[in-house]
Amino acid sequence: MTTSAPTTAVRTGLALRGVTLTYPDGEHRLTALEDVELAVAPGEFAAVAGPSGSGKSSLLAVAATLLRPDRGEVLVDGVDAGALGERDRTALRRERLGIVFQQSNLLASLTAVEQLLVLESVRGRRPARARARAEELLESVGLAGAKQRRRPHQLSGGERQRVNIARALFGSPSVLLVDEPTSALDHERGAQVVELLAEVTRAHRTATVMVTHDRDLLGRADRVLTMQDGRLTTAA
Ligand code: ADP
Ligand code: MG
Questions:
Q1: 50 CB near ligand 1 (under 6 Å)
Q2: Does the beta carbon of 66 sit less than 6 angstroms from any atom of ligand 1?
Q3: Which residues cross the membrane (predicted)?
Q4: Nearest-angstrom CA–CA distance, 77 and 6
Q5: Does residue 229 line the site of ligand 1, with CB under 6 A?
Q6: Cys-Cys link to 176, which of 29, 61, 98, 117 (CB 3.0-4.6 A)?
């Protein structure tokens, strides 16, 4: 099998249908997600709010095809991730998904622009074009000029988060998944990062899901959902 299914799919965003996820818990299983339904269209910015432990990161891990649910379907641009083997799932993730994890996983020794280009060495675009695109993306998230040549420790928390977002956008994903992007930032910087996510959702037509425990940051979202004990509801 090749990656033909993912690469030919129309961009329709993300859908979760009847998703249930459990983890081993001693003799039992802990239900982290229960019968979750979610559909996010291209260009839509959905926010999921919920307390710590409610299942937000689990939701993103399933949507990112990093965890397989016990039941239910995850569709990325209409492609059922559960029906794919490991290689095709990896290809789907690389070609269609942009992920900003809660823990910034920037590489300490690389400059901002290199954080993006290191992905390209796996993908094989022409180096000069890849660099131009990386610089353009960094500029579009507010990191211009000399800042692009700084290493993570020479950037502020907010700037590092911008690098993370630019990196997630580098592969032109259909779906952008963002876990607690503001947890390490003060309120104003956090609000700026959420504003940026709203902007990139419009500009890149991504189906964006941001999860957060901070209810103050939901104003820029097109839609707010609430996660409580693994259940997703539309009530804010
Ligand atoms: P949130 O991101 O909202 O804080 P999580 O998705 O991380 O919530 O966790 C949901 C529930 O699943 C919690 O009760 C948590 O302890 C549990 N959980 C998360 N990851 C694992 C894991 N790898 N193994 C077992 N339990 C887990
Ligand atoms: Mg979490």
A1: yes
A2: no
A3: none
A4: 8
A5: no
A6: 98
Q: How much is the pLDDT for 2?
A: 46
Pocket flag, ligand 1, residue 195 (CB < 6 Å)? no
Q: Round to whole Å and give the CA distance between 50 and 56.
A: 7
**pTM (whole model) above 0.85:** yes
pLDDT beyond 90 at 90:
yes
In the chain, what is the straight-line distance between the N-terminal and C-terminal CA atoms, in Å? 43
Ligand 1, atom 21, lies closest to the CA of 23
* 3 lies in some domain: no
Whether the pLDDT of residue 140 is over 50: the answer is yes
Say how many Å lie between the CA of residue 70 and the centre of ligand 1: 15
140 lines ligand 1 (CB under 6 A): no
CB 236 within 8 A of CB 226: yes
Tell whether 9 is covered by a domain: no
Say how many Å lie between the CA of residue 141 and the centre of ligand 1.
31
Residue 77 structural domain: 14-234
**In total, how many domains does the chain have?**
1
Q: What is the mean pLDDT of the chain?
A: 92
* 223 close to 47: Cβ distance less than 8 angstroms: yes
Give the pLDDT confidence score for residue 3 in this predicted structure: 47
Candidates 44, 45, 53; CA nearest to 23 is: 53
Residue 6 lies in a domain: no
